[in-house]
Amino acid sequence: MYRKGEVHYQPLPLPDRVQVPDAQSQAQAEAFLAQMRRRHSVRQFDPRPVPEAVIAACIATAGTAPSGANHQPWHFVAVSDPALKARIREGAEEEERAFYSGGAGDEWLAALEPIGTGVSKPHLTDAPWLIVIFAQRYGVTQDGVRYKNYYVPESVGIATGFLIAALHHAGLCCLEHTPNPMKFLGPLLGRPDHEKPVMILPVGWPAADATVPAVAKRKKPLNEILSVFR
Length: 230
Hints:
Layout: H1 22-36, E1 45-46, H2 52-62, E2 74-79, H3 82-103, H4 106-112, H5 123-126, E3 129-136, E4 138-140, E5 146-148, H6 152-169, E6 173-174, H7 185-188, E7 195-206, H8 222-225
Antiparallel strand pairs: 1-7, 2-3, 3-7, 4-5, 6-7
Helix pairs in contact: 2-6
C-alpha cells in the first residue's frame, strides 16, 4: 500500500515458489476447475451461524489480491447483526422497487427473467453474514494527505474474485448482489465519502431446499472464451 516517504523501488528475492512439474501443474489446474464448477450463487440460506474466523480468513485472502500500484483500494465490511442486516435489506429493496418499476429498461428486465429475481430480497436477512465491498476512489495517508488510486475497478474486481473463490473453498455459498444505486450503504456502515459500495455478498450455508436458476448452469464452452496464438 502507499505510504508517504516509501515511494522508491526495492527488489526482494521471490519469497515463495509454488512451481511444480508440468503433470502436477495440469492436475492441480484441473482439480481447481472441478472445484470451481461446483460453485453456485444461491438465494436460499440456512440460518446456521458461520464462525467469524472463517469470514475473516476469506477476507484476508481477498486482501492478497494484486492491485494498481499496490494501493489495495478496497474495504470489506462484514455484518452479522440482525438489525443492521434488516436495515440493509430495507435500503436495497427500496432501490429495487425503483429499478423494477421503471428504472430498468425492458431489455434488462427480460434478461433477468430467467434468473428469477425480483424486489424481495430475503437473502439479505436470512444469510448469517453480509459482506459489503467498498472501492476507495482515492486514499488518505495517516497524516490526512489525499493520494490517487489506480485501476480501482479492476483491482476491486480481482479482490472480489479472490473472496468468492475463498468462500467457496471454505464450503460456503454467496450471492453477488448489486442494488443500484447503493449510496445508502456508506452512511449506514460508517464508511467515508471516498469509498463507493460496489457489491453486497450474502454468505452462509445453502438451505436444504436451495435452488439455482437452470439458466445459470449454461456456461460458454472453452472455444468461445479462449483464443490461442502459437
